[in-house]
């Protein structure tokens, strides 16, 4: 049963990535939120961090700065709880509250290792 949930989560994630590639940011965000719910239920915390960050970037691209910052801060908080103090590929001084450009332009979407 668990492998079915994992496969469904993986497929939803891939669908979200495809939608981003097609320019459908709102559709991608819906799929990321569905995947986020599944990852949370499965206690897949590294995937949750990855999805929170990607949701932050999409909210930012859609002009939803408050939601983008909330998701970015949630990512940082979760990574700190996981003893991973910063998202992969970001400078040590990174802080969600210091954003001056869209998240997606400052830092590419990343996967938490």
Would you kindly provide a written description of the structure presented here, covering whatever features stand out?
- The relative contact order is 0.13.
- Helix 1 packs antiparallel against helix 2 and helix 3 packs antiparallel against helix 4.
- The chain has about 110 residues and is an all-alpha fold.
| Major sheet summary line | none
Structure summary, number of beta strands: 0
Stretches where pLDDT is under 50 for at least 5 consecutive residues are 89-113
* Beta-strand proportion: under 5%
Arithmetic mean pLDDT: 77
Can you tell me the overall shape? flat
Write the layout of secondary structure elements.
Blueprint: H1 2-21, H2 25-41, H3 45-61, H4 65-81, H5 103-106
Helix pairs in contact: 1-2, 2-3, 3-4
Structural descriptors:
113 residues; 5 helices; single chain; disordered C terminus; mainly alpha; 66% helix
Summarize the structure.
By secondary structure, the protein is mainly alpha-helical. The chain has helices at residues 2-21, 25-41, 45-61, 65-81, 103-106. The longest helix has 20 residues, at 2-21.
């Amino acid at each position: 049963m668990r492998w079915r949930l994992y496969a469904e989560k993986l497929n939803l994630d891939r669908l979200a990535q495809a939608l981003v590639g097609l320019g459908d940011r709102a559709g991608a965000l819906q799929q990321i939120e569905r995947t986020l719910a599944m990852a949370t239920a499965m206690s897949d915390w590294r995937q949750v961090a990855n999805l929170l960050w990607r949701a932050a970037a999409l909210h930012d691209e859609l002009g939803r700065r408050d939601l983008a910052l909330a998701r970015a801060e949630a990512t940082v908080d979760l990574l700190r709880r996981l003893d991973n103090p910063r998202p992969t590929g970001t400078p040590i001084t990174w802080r969600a509250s210091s954003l001056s450009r869209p998240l997606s332009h400052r830092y590419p979407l990343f996967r938490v290792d």
